[in-house]
Amino acid sequence: MLGGLATAGGLILTGALLWWLGTVWPHRTPETPVVTRRPER
Predict the structure, then answer these.
(1) Rounded to an integer, what distance in angstroms lies between the CA atom of residue 1 and that of residue 13?
(2) Which one of 9, 19, 22, 34 counts the least CB within 10 Å of its CB?
(3) Torsional sign, CA 5, 7, 10, 12
(4) 40 to each of 14, 36, 37, how far by Cα in Å?
């Protein structure tokens, strides 16, 4: 029980930290479009 609560709390804290960093970090638009999938051959 305590382990699950600790894991959930850690995930929430990590998500909040990443969200805060995303809002505070200066946004730079990449000059080349970001390709998420690999090129098909």
Answers:
(1) 18
(2) 34
(3) negative
(4) 35, 12, 9
Instruction: For 1-41, write each residue's pLDDT tens digit.
Output: 889 999 999 999 999 999 988 887 766 666 666 666 776 66
Q: Where are the alpha helices (DSSP H) in 1-41?
A: 2-24
Q: Which two tokens stand for residue 12?
A: 């929430």
- Separation between Cα atoms, residue 18 and residue 22, nearest integer Å: 6
Name the residue type at position 35. V
- For residue 6, the one-letter residue type is A
